[in-house]
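Deliverable D5.2: sample structural annotation.
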Amino acid sequence: MKFIFLILLSVTQVMAHERIVKTKADNMAFGKFHKQKSHQWPFPLLSIGHNMQSFQDYSGSPYWHDGLDIRSVPDQPIYAAAGGKVVNVENYIHGNHLYWEVAIQDEEGFVWKYHHVAKDSITQEIHRALNTNEKIAAGTLIGNVVKWPVSSYGEVYHHLHLLVVGVDGYINPFLMMEPLTDTVAPVISRIGLAKDHKPIDGAEVKGEHAIFLEASDLVMHKKFILPPHKISYRLNHGEEKVVWNFVNLPSGKNDTDFISDFFMKGTCGNYNCRKFYFNLNFSKEKPRGLFSLPAGNHEIEVSVEDMVGNKATKSFKWKVL
């Protein structure tokens, strides 16, 4: 029983520590993002486990994922996607061997943060560059992915957590990398009415209301569903309104602002549950804004896109009483 308890404790600690802890490297970034880059991936990836806009909630306090979980084989060597100055090597959750960071500032001022590097695998070249301010080249060996102790959807979740920081905060790492081959569009599962920030059944409603979207995307996997890159809609055949395009996050200063506004009640994101209910009425100005529409029939056409432009569109009709 003691052995089982220790295993459960370990898993709980891992879940509680999945959120990102900012380090001193974050404050060194001065890069300004303008267009898609084409850096090489740090290793041949198995799939994307989470993207930056993934909803995370392991203990009742949801937050944005902020970066990419690049899934790997055990002990996968990690190579620098961009060259530059090594600006940090840190155990950013002190005493936990799963949480080591190597951070590199590239020539444009972007800081690349490689998380979940096995401590003893971090190369002498990286340590020397940190101490001497020597620059390293793209493709330099950083270390190996630490062995992850938790499985998700039947697979051990070995992964590198990659973050890219610019002067305005976290940037979608997909936009910094060579685009992946992806020919499958995101999926729209449901569109419907919402009241009190929660999806409801039916297609008739009284008074002010919101519209929810259930949608997902996959990148090189069949189970690790992700939020789409871009969500937009046309109300009653009007102009397109972009709910959000994830070049960056609505939350620029931390990983919690707007998370419970953008996602509706019923959303889950952990090792065993992934379901996303998006609030189509979201904006930073009115995070939980509502439609106040005249009585009668209405229609919304919703579109979702992935990083390479694959697109899905679906409509929903309802009646305001």
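Annotation notes: Residues 83 and 138 are 4 Å apart (CA to CA). The chain has two domains: 20-176, 187-320.
The annotation will be released with the project's public dataset once the embargo ends.
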